[in-house]
Amino acid sequence: MRSLRCVLMTMLLALCSLVATPALADSLDGSSRHLSMRLVAESDHPKAGAPLTIAIATTPDTDWHGYWANPGDAGFPATLDWTLPRGVTAGQPEWPVPTTLLIAGLMNYVYEAPYAPLVTIQVPAGLAAGVKLPIRLKTSYLVCSATICVPEEQALALDLTIGDGAPSQASAFAGWRRAIPKPLDAGATYAVDQGVLRVAVPFPAGARAKDAYFFPLTTGVIDNGARQTVTRSGDTLTIATRLAANGKANAPIEGVLRIGDAQGLAVSAAPGVVAAGPSDNAGGLWATALAAFAGAVLGGLILNIMPCVFPILSLKALSLARGGASEREARHEALAYTAGVVLVCLGLGAAILALRAGGSAVGWAFQLQHPAAIIVLLLLSTAIAFNLAGLFEVPTPRFAGESGASGAFATGALAAFIATPCTGPFMGAALGAALVLPWPAAMAVFAGLGLGLSLPFLAIGFVPAWRRWLPKPGAWMETFRHVLSVPMFLTAIALAWVLGRQTGVDSLTLALVAVLAIGAVLWIGGTRQRKGKAFGAATLAALAVVFVGSAVVIARAPPASARAAVAGDEAFSEAKLAALRAEKRGVFVYFTADWCLTCKVNEKAAIETATVRDAFAKNKVAVLIGDWTDGDPVMGRFIEAHNRAGVPLYLYYAPGAAEPTVLPQVLTPALLAGLGV
């Protein structure tokens, strides 16, 4: 019966094509098209020898819809006929996640809201800057309303000029790419039993799957209009539906699994064994949320001993070594410190979730991708170092070494903010899970990170026996305080290095001038304090001017030129990775950033060592470097696809392997030297 309906619908569409000839003529002259289309290039000045993504930005008229690559039980997909300059080639279109439209028992896979298929074209090498690149597309498609279908054609044109490849539509493409199904890291399986097709998709138990639905790209396998049942069991999501009449299920089935509004996964399912039995979605969700929370707490605790947090430990040491506080005071300070840490982590987490909801591919420590944030941290670290060295005393609120809950809160907030460049064991997976959990669970994970970071101070505040182990206060503390200025000065030097790498020597020079200005202002304030006077409102105003002025000037600085890689390494791109894998070579890919101290420690202690480099050469392991210092959105999406919220991320693609091995966040030369053996 369904087959008969499909035949009848096809006949009706053919009839529409005949009777709608006037409408087609109108659509060709542009007077009554029901799909508004335009070509948009990610860069108006593409780089020679590099891939360029072009969007076919499409907006249906109200109550009309276009069709997906598999239209379902009726309709037909768009055809794309490109006319390109010599040497330019176009890849297959990447279609956004569609929606379902059931009409008279027939299931259609359609777009009723604005959408944009993406096509990657390869620009040939050797073209000089300024060369014109005309792009032409003729497309034929079917557009329907609830009562009528109209075939239409459009001729689209886009004229580009060869240049530096700088993105000109980054925000729009970030949104369009969010709707493109992400590749599934692991293979899916399917099985057929008594006419029921069940597809098992590897999917983290805590990851949210809202309105899950399987759209088949392989036609003639499932009954499109049949009800789909979705169940969860551990890290597997299973879709059960009816096998199509005369359907054959003995080859891989391609499709898209919808996991949210305009979000999906590209699935390739092979015949295999699929376990039976539904599960409790909510139970699995909260179990994973609890696991991610525990991982965040443990990751935050370990963060206290990571190299990038040494300045934070210095601030804590002065606050904790003071001793002599009453039980009530100790607990109040511990709670205030914890509140400062947790609130900053929650604030950063909320900002990440909000930016990602808007289409930006940001991750942990995203603020350090902006030079203005670096200069603020640089000047702040310098001021704290001068304070620890005794140049001046911090006026209200007090920081390390001073009494009061306000000082403890400020110290905790500063500790969390400076800690953001680092990730450690457990932390990466926990934050990666947070990005796919419902927002209340995600915020709980970020709070868990803050709780772990503040746990040592919290424990000492509430366990008197631990406080008795602290050294007794005395004159030594003043000397100790001066010594602790050294790691803060080192932190400032590291931040200056990061700024120079991001924006170049001119901006670095301006930053050093700002550091000198900060030092002079603080010396004036300290001189007033030593004479028994207040720090001075004018002095505080001068500090604010230097901070804000420096941030504004540095924010406008152009990015530095490309950074040199270790000999033999190449910059990461998905095209280069695919080419190396096609050669059946082992590929080690590492994602780093100049502001990630954990990354730099791994690079110097393991990746760039002679032992590892010799082993890579011997085993023919190629190395690709993903530099995420400036927050490249394309790279950010690739990192996100591997369930990570930021760097470092280390991947090894064994020759011929379908999926990479995700390596630990703390590397050793022995681990890397064994790759490819």
What is the 3D shape? globular
Number of domains: 4
Separate helix tally: 20
Mean pLDDT: 79
Distance between the termini: 58 Å
Helix-strand category = alpha+beta
The main pleated sheet reads as: 8 strands, mixed
Low-confidence stretches: 1-31, 277-282, 396-402
User: Regarding quaternary structure, how should these chains be classified?
Assistant: single chain
Helical fraction equals: 40-55%
Secondary structure tally: strands: 23
> From the alpha-carbon coordinates, what is the Rg to the nearest angstrom?
29 Å
Percent of residues in β-strands: 15-25%
Quick synopsis:
It contains 20 helices and 23 strands. By secondary structure, it is α+β, with helices and mostly antiparallel strands. The longest helix is centred in the middle third of the chain and has 31 residues, at 327-357.
Q: Secondary-structure blueprint of this entry?
A:
Layout: H1 2-19, H2 21-28, E1 35-41, E2 51-60, E3 66-72, E4 79-83, E5 89-90, E6 99-103, E7 106-111, E8 118-122, E9 132-144, E10 149-161, H3 170-178, E11 182-183, E12 188-193, E13 196-202, E14 213-216, E15 229-233, E16 236-242, E17 253-260, E18 263-271, H4 281-303, H5 310-321, H6 327-357, H7 371-388, H8 405-419, H9 427-434, H10 439-462, H11 464-467, H12 476-483, H13 485-503, H14 505-530, H15 537-555, E19 570-571, H16 574-582, E20 586-592, H17 597-607, H18 610-619, E21 621-627, H19 633-641, E22 649-653, E23 661-662, H20 669-673
